[in-house]
Design goal:
By secondary structure, the chain is α/β, with parallel strands linked by helices. The chain contains 14 helices and 11 strands. Strand 6, helix 4 and strand 7 form a beta-alpha-beta unit.
Length: 335
């Protein structure tokens, strides 16, 4: 049965691209869409930054028709600011407004935004209710299990958020205190899904790093879909590979060197078209390791890619990689 956020059809088992700061920008989202992501989310946008018209926050509102359905994600700790932000976001006509109650980084969480609001559940519920009332768009939430091991109230929290009108929830299976360490605990995500009062889609997030794990967690924890984050950085093929494995139980061939260089160049070209050269070169650096993971004796090329600030040198290095490793074959993954 197709999963829906209000009247947005997402298919039987949708894969969502997680909102990742300095990663989930339009160039990267375009590639994830091309390789099978069903729903996009923007990088999270600071409510205070947006209402002050900060250039970085405003630029994150850029969305494109081919990305739909797309959600714009917002965060903040002041309800009035979040309502003004909702109004600004609505004008850009996304399909969804997503509220970030999950970001664990200190500068966000310690100001009571992101995962910081998990220390004040009544405020979290009130803010959500106000945002739902303020927009005609479907509102979704991304959050964590709780602030720490003593406050994993996610089953009750998810129900309360549903009661004030959210239309889907994505849950990262860690507490704020865990940051990204240790293993994600999906048993509580499953408990949210199994709660007989829950009617909205429940998406799981955390540690999905292979097609096998995607299928295992789908079957074991019963979630409506998966939100994919780190596994897609520098590897947008991940969405296609998971979908194929869910459908057939078989692995697709791994992308060849030629494909990797081609998509990596497309990513860089799109980044250059969307942002300034220095930023484009810098922000691509986090992707190179995964684009070329598993190639032996690659260290010298990787070093060049992640240290060079000269655009021509980066292109030349990619050409050298394509030529030097053209005969290298990635081992097929055993089904």
């Amino acid at each position: 049965m197709s999963v829906k956020i209000r009247d947005i059809e997402l298919g039987d088992f949708p894969l969502l691209l997680a909102p990742m700061e300095d990663v989930s920008d339009p160039p990267f989202r375009a590639l994830c869409k091309k390789f099978g992501a069903d729903v996009m989310y923007t990088e999270f946008i600071s409510s205070e930054g947006l209402i002050r018209d900060a250039a970085k926050s405003v630029q994150k509102l850029d969305i494109y028709e081919y990305e739909r359905p797309i959600g714009i994600q917002i965060f903040g700790n002041n309800i009035e600011s979040m309502l003004k932000t909702t109004e600004i976001v609505e004008r850009t006509k996304p399909d969804i407004i997503d509220i970030n109650y999950g970001c664990p980084v200190k500068k966000v969480a310690c100001k009571g935004a992101g995962a910081g609001i998990l220390q004040d559940i009544p405020k979290m519920v009130k803010m959500t209710a106000e945002i739902v009332k303020a927009t005609d768009l479907p509102v979704t939430v991304k959050t964590r299990l709780g602030w720490d091991d003593n406050t994993k109230y996610i089953v009750e929290v998810a129900e309360r958020l549903q009661d004030v009108g959210i239309e889907a929830i994505s849950i990262h299976g860690r507490t704020r205190k865990q940051m990204y360490k240790g293993e994600a605990d999906w048993t509580l995500i499953n408990a949210v899904k199994e709660n007989p009062r829950m009617k909205i889609p429940v998406f799981g997030n955390g540690d999905i790093d292979s097609p096998e794990k995607a299928v295992e967690y789908k079957d074991k924890y019963g979630v409506d879909g998966l939100m994919i984050g780190r596994a897609s950085i520098g590897y947008p093929w991940f969405f296609r590979e998971v979908k194929h494995y869910v459908k057939t139980g078989e692995h697709l061939p791994r992308p060849t060197i030629a494909e990797r260089v081609e998509v990596c160049r497309e990513h860089l070209d799109r980044s250059l078209a969307w942002k300034n050269e220095i930023l484009a070169i810098n922000e691509m650096k986090r992707h190179y390791t995964n684009y070329f993971k598993g190639i032996p004796h690659f260290k010298a090329y990787r070093t060049k890619l992640v240290t060079s600030m000269d655009l021509q040198e980066v292109y030349d290095t990619l050409d050298m990689v394509a030529e030097k490793f053209k005969d290298f074959e990635f081992y097929p993954v055993e089904s």
